[in-house]
Sequence to fold (173 residues):
Amino acid sequence: MNIQPEFLQYTQWSGIATLALAAIAILAFVFKWGIRFRLVGTTGFMLVITGGLFALSLAPLTRTVIPGAVRYNLVYDNGATQTVISLKNDITQTQLDATLRQAASDLYSAGRLGAGTNNLMLIRARTVIHPEPGVSIPLYIGQAKRSLASRDDSSMAIEIFEDKFALLAKPTA
Fold:
């Protein structure tokens, strides 16, 4: 979904409103109205809004969607190199692979600590099992390691812990 044309249209309307406010502010100074300085402030604010909308119309606001990925919850993020996502127990290995790739894409940010160096971001996927009533155990079922240096990481490593999936298949009490 490309929303850049919408931001461009908002920019046009905001620009028209800014010009109208500027004209009213000039009239206010000519006729020495009492609200002339407030109109100058409002015009300046509208200039800032128009500039922001114009910038949003230039930058692409797209999100990469990985087919087969399921919903996940971000459980832990230290803002640098480690994150943990939570998944439901009924996930398959192919869904886990796609979800780890989706999380790697979603959680990448050039502003993370350690970015620009050869640091890797580790995204761990976990679920919670209940082996007996009243006992909950977090079970790490996979992880992804991606570079913090570039958004498009062709050498991202996805690791799925197949032995942990055997524990998911066991019936719980």
Summary: Helices lie at 4-30, 36-58, 93-107, 162-169. The two ends are 45 Å apart (CA to CA). The CA atoms of residues 4 and 57 lie 5 Å apart.
